[in-house]
Specification:
Largest sheet: 5 strands, antiparallel
Strand order of the largest sheet: 4-3-2-1-5
Mean pLDDT: 85
Shape: globular
Distance between the termini: 34 Å
Order of helices and strands: HEEEEE
Strand content: 35-45%
Radius of gyration: 13 Å
Low-confidence stretches: none
Length: about 70
C-alpha cells in the first residue's frame, strides 16, 4: 500500500511553481488552492515558498502543495 502512494507523489524541486492548499476553507465557492508560489528551499517533507504576488516567504508541508503548470 505505501509503495503505491510514494510512486504517485510529485517530486518538487527548487524553482518549481506550486499551488498551496488552504488550511481552512469557509464556504463552498472559495478556491481550495492559492498561488502560484515558487519553491525556494526544501527541508525533507516541507519547503520554503515565495508568494509571487506579495514576495512573502512561508514554510509549508508537501502535503499542501500541488504542481502549477503554466499554459
Amino acid at each position: 500500500f505505501d509503495e503505491r502512494i510514494s510512486e504517485n507523489r510529485y517530486e518538487f524541486k527548487i524553482g518549481d511553481k506550486v499551488w498551496v492548499k488552504e488550511s481552512q476553507i469557509t464556504g463552498n465557492l472559495r478556491n481550495k488552492f492559492n498561488g502560484p508560489f515558487e519553491i525556494k528551499e526544501i527541508y525533507g517533507t516541507s519547503a520554503k515558498i515565495l508568494n509571487l504576488e506579495t514576495n512573502q516567504i512561508s514554510k509549508v508541508n508537501f502535503d499542501r502543495l500541488k504542481p502549477y503548470f503554466e499554459t
